[in-house]
Amino acid sequence: MSAPEEFVRWRDLGLTYEQAISGIESATRFVMANEGVPDEGQDAILMMLRHMRVALDTRASDVRALVDLLIEKGVFTVEEIEEQLRRSANEELAIVEVEMTEKYDREFKFR
Description:
Elements: H1 17-34, H2 44-72, H3 78-104
Helix pairs in contact: 1-2
């Protein structure tokens, strides 16, 4: 089974992986600068936040590539991955709620 056409929307810019990631970093830097975060003389926390954003965007592109390839090869269907993503997000929320409850000694429910 191949991936449904509407699921796979690749725009090949002809860049290497490293060039594309550098572009993501540049875009993130631009957005942060336009939101009032100074580009020059940034402190360590602001630099860390920018790098964390780039890491998140990079992870998203990596996961999407893997998922699309596995669907295309018929390893699983779109519906199966959507259900697994739903279950995984629920688990992640449960973990966060437990951690927050333990850390702040009161019950947290982010729902």
